[in-house]
Every structure is written in C-alpha cells, then in structure tokens.
Automatic annotation (TrEMBL):
Gene Ontology molecular function: metal ion binding; oxidoreductase activity
Domain Tyrosinase copper-binding: start-end pairs: 76-93
Keywords for the protein's UniProt record, in alphabetical order: Copper, Metal-binding, Signal
Record has Signal as a keyword: yes
A Pfam match: Tyrosinase
Protein name (database record): Tyrosinase copper-binding domain-containing protein
Length: 487
C-alpha cells in the first residue's frame, strides 16, 4: 500500500515536473521534493543508484569531486559554507536528473543513527558498504564497491572509521535543534554547523570523507543534503526574514559576504541566487523525517510523566498512604475481630494494590504511548526497547573532533571547542530528564531488531587498527578576491 502511494505520488511529481519544464521557468510552483533515503521507495532508491552509475560512467562523479577539491580553500572556514554547499547539492541534483529524469537528491538523517552510526543501514552491503578493509582501507562491499576514482589520484574508495570498527557518536537531533534555536542569523548558523555536526560525519567515516575530494564517497551528497535540510529548517522558523538572510566574513576574515559575491567554481552564480530554496534556480522542498515531531512528543511525555510522579508525593499519593496505614492499623488493632474484619481488610488491601498498579501503569502508559507515537512519527513499526543496552536509552556524549581535520579546514579550535561544549550541554539536559526517550534511541532499537532479523549476513570485516589523529598544517587562507575567475 505504502509503495502504491509512493508510486502514485512519484508519478504525480514527475508529471508536475514535466508541466513545469514545459512552462519555461514560470516560477517555482512545483518544487522538487527531497526525501530521506530511507523514506524513499525501493523504486526511488533504485533510480537514484542507477543515475549515480550513469554519472560515474560519464565522469560527472569525478568532476564534482575535483570542483570541491579545487575550491576547498574558498568554501570552508568561511560564511559561504552553507550557501556554496546548497548550490553544490543542487548541481548534483541537476546532474542526477540529466542522468535519469525525475530523480531528485536524497538526504541522510544521521541523527537517527547518532548513537552507533556504524550500524546504520547505509553502511550495509546492499547500500553503500561499510568500513575500509586491509592495509589500503578500500571499501570492499556495497553497490559501488568496484568504483575507482581519479580525484586527486587513481584510488579505490577509502573509509577509516575513527573508532576502529565503530564511528564516534554523531549529533542527535536534540543538539541540532539547539543549533537552530541558538542561531539568530545566517553567519551564526553556518559556523555552528560547519565546525559542529558537519565535521563529525566526515571525521567519523574517515578515508575519502576526510579529504577535500570527499564527494568521491556518495554519502557526501546525502550528508550535505542533511546539512542543507538543517539550514532549510532554520529558514522555515521565520521564512520571510530568513529566506535571503546572509552575513559574515569570507575566508581570510576580511571581505564581507554579499548577495553579489560570486560562488567559487561557479562565477556566473551569485550568493544571492542560492539562498531562497523556493527561487527558480533552486526550487525544492524537503520531506522531513518525523524526528522533530518525535522529539516534541518525547519532551511532552517526559514532562507529563515527571508531573505525574510528583503528584504522587502529595494529595492523591497521601490518600493512598493513609489508606495503607488504615489497613495495617486495622490488622494490628483487631486481633479479636480478625475473622469479622478480614473481609474488609482483604477488600482494602485489594484496593490499594489496584491503585498502585493503576498508578504505575498510568506512568508506563504515558511513556509507552509516547513511544508508540514517537515510533509512528519516525515512520517505523513497533519497537522493542528491551533490545537496547540500558545505557543506550540515554544519548552518548560524542568525543571531541580530531585536531587533524580541524587544521585541514582551518576552522579555529576555539570555535570547535565552543560548539562541542554547547552540544554536550544540550545532550546532558535531555539525559537528565528522567522519562525522556530520544528518537535516536527508538530508531536504534528498531535497527537492532532489523539486524537481528537480517537473513543476509555480511562477510566478516577485517578492521584495520584505529588511526591516530595526525595533526595537519592548514594551508594559508587565500584572499577571497584571489578566487579564480573560471572554474
Ligand atoms: C528549542 O526551542 C523550542 C521552542 O522554543 C523548545 O521547545 C525546545 O526545548 C528548544 N530546544 C533546544 C534544544 O534548545
Ligand atoms: C580561518 O578563518 C579565520 C577567521 O576568518 C582566520 O583567522 C584563519 O586564518 C582561517 N584559517 C585558514 C587556515 O584559512
Ligand atoms: C522482522 O521480521 C518480521 C518477519 O519477517 C517482520 O514482520 C518485521 O517487520 C521485521 N522487523 C524489522 C525491524 O525489520
């Protein structure tokens, strides 16, 4: 049924796009809908993978990696980070559509995999494969395992997870919401994202993803789809004010960005053209995962459960204790009248037990119903939280990012520290809410069930030893005016 609707909606969207294409750009009336890769139908994913194979065969995948590598010094450690990458994902999407009409960019909501990213379905043999293997760290499974790259030299796809066979925890949605809430303007948001959640994904996967030719790894595009969606969600908080909001310094910290600033690698395109996702050039929207909604439900349930527990300490609770005291009193006082009273005592005890059971189950209901609602909001089947290690009911605190990557992007260590501190504070706040259950935990329980269910077992991975954090010397910041005119 779900697939049927997906196909119908897919056909409608395709029809709308054709109408749009035929109308010669008469405004963004029928925006492309970008989905989370797991929310896309099997058919949509198949088309996406097929379009990518076409783009690999005709050299586009390698060309895009080269553009990113060539422009690296201009598009990082700069307020242009979000704007440039927004356009870059659009270029990728245009290429997808050239390769296979109707295919749109997909994104990866890694907040759902935040606790144990290495267990994500994305890293399975049926999808993008897992960690690199052997001395050369080549990825030997996944649909694109045969690919060889040309940027910057001939090589296989490399991944080197930053915790041996595991990946350091990523930002949960709680921390993303913190970034959205705490960023009053574009400049604040772009720095919070670049030096925060964005880096964790690159760094966690390692290999090509920690190089400036990261687009060799297709997950780069899904990751930057997510980064762009966070920017989109921030704009949607106050769309009219934020749709064209721009501010901050370009690389080198001298020149101020403006709507007329040309984009690195795309000199004909100006920053002002790539801010409003509803404009003609961009014209897309995101189909959001239920994460934000699930978080709201979880917060509300935690608040209610805490209130309920508190109410047990007074009023209602006292009357129960009184009742219990009365029962015990009755038992003690009336040795002589035991036989006579026993009927009443049993009745009273029965009532107390019933009340206690009722209050506990009320509490469980509050949280249990919320779990169902969260699960539903996330688009999952029922989950069994018993599958989780109890510590996974809370959010892990991700380790601070490795200094080497920090140096490569040129982002100031002080900014990285500040972002990390804020994220840790947010996670601790949610972890201290007694009855709060993060969508990340629920999603992970679901994933564990699927892993246990899996009929196909992947070949055991030979995991290379954990890589040391090798410091790198940053390349000196160029002046933005040194930007090469032609790509
Ligand atoms: C973000 O703001 C919303 C709305 O004001 C609030 O409910 C939520 O708790 C805030 N969350 C964080 C992490 O700042
Ligand atoms: C990063 O930006 C800051 C502030 O603009 C600047 O001081 C620093 O030199 C830059 N680092 C690199 C490597 O570009
Ligand atoms: C596990 O397998 C059962 C039976 O095939 C299926 O109904 C269920 O949806 C699966 N659960 C997950 C989480 O994949």
């Amino acid at each position: 049924m779900k697939n049927f609707f997906a196909v119908v909606i897919g056909l409608l969207l395709l029809a709308l796009q054709l109408v749009e294409a035929g109308s010669n750009g008469g405004g963004c009336k029928n925006p492309i809908v970008r989905k989370e890769i797991r929310s896309a139908s099997d058919e949509e994913r198949k088309n996406f993978f097929e379009a990518l194979q076409v783009m690999k065969n005709n050299g586009v995948v390698d060309k895009l990696a080269k553009i990113h590598n060539d422009q690296a010094n201009y598009v990082h450690n700069s307020t242009i980070f979000l704007a440039f990458h927004r356009y870059f994902v659009k270029v990728f999407e245009n290429e997808l559509q050239k390769a296979k009409p109707g295919v749109s960019a997909l994104y990866w909501d890694w907040t759902l995999d935040a606790q144990h990213p290495e267990n994500s379905i994305l890293f399975t043999p049926e999808w993008f494969g897992g960690n690199g293997q052997g001395d050369d760290h080549c990825v030997k499974d996944g649909i694109f395992k045969e690919w060889q790259f040309t940027t910057i030299d001939k090589h296989c796809l490399k991944r080197i997870y930053n915790k041996g066979n595991a990946i350091n925890a990523l930002y949960p949605y709680e921390a993303i919401l913190g970034n959205i809430n705490n960023s009053a303007n574009y400049d604040q948001l772009t720095h919070a994202i670049e030096g925060g959640c964005h880096g964790f994904v690159h760094l966690g996967m390692g290999g090509d993803m920690t190089e400036m030719y990261a687009p060799n790894d297709i997950t780069f595009w899904l990751h930057h789809g997510m980064i762009d969606m966070i920017y989109y969600q921030w704009q949607m908080v106050d769309y009219e004010t934020r749709k064209n909001d721009i501010s901050g310094k370009l690389v080198g910290g001298v020149e101020e960005i403006s709507h007329d600033t040309p984009l690195p690698g795309y000199p004909d395109v100006k920053v002002g053209d790539v801010l409003d996702f509803k404009n003609n050039l961009l014209c897309y929207v995101y189909e959001e995962t239920g994460t934000a909604k699930a978080m709201k439900i979880a917060e509300e349930a935690a608040r209610k459960a805490a209130e309920y527990k508190k109410s047990q300490g007074s009023g209602k609770g006292n009357s129960k204790r009184d009742l219990l005291g009365g029962v015990l009193g009755a038992v003690g006082d009336t040795v002589g009248n035991v036989v006579e009273d026993v009927g009443d005592v049993v009745k009273d005890v029965g009532d107390v037990v019933e009340d206690v059971v009722e209050s506990v189950s009320d509490l469980l209901d509050a949280v249990g119903d919320a779990i169902k609602d969260i699960t539903k909001a996330l688009g999952l089947e029922d989950v069994d939280l018993n599958l989780l290690d109890p510590k996974d009911l809370k959010l892990p605190i991700p380790d601070k990012p490795c200094g080497g990557w920090v140096a490569m992007t040129g982002i100031s260590p002080a900014l990285i520290d500040e972002q990390h501190k804020q994220m840790v504070q947010t996670i601790k706040k949610y972890n201290s809410m007694k009855y709060y259950i993060s969508p990340s935990a629920i999603h992970y329980a679901h994933r564990l069930a699927a892993i246990r269910n899996a009929t196909t077992t992947s070949t055991p991975v030979v995991v290379p030893p954990r890589r040391k954090c090798i410091p790198r010397t940053p390349s000196p910041a160029p002046a933005y005016s040194a930007l090469p005119v032609a790509a």
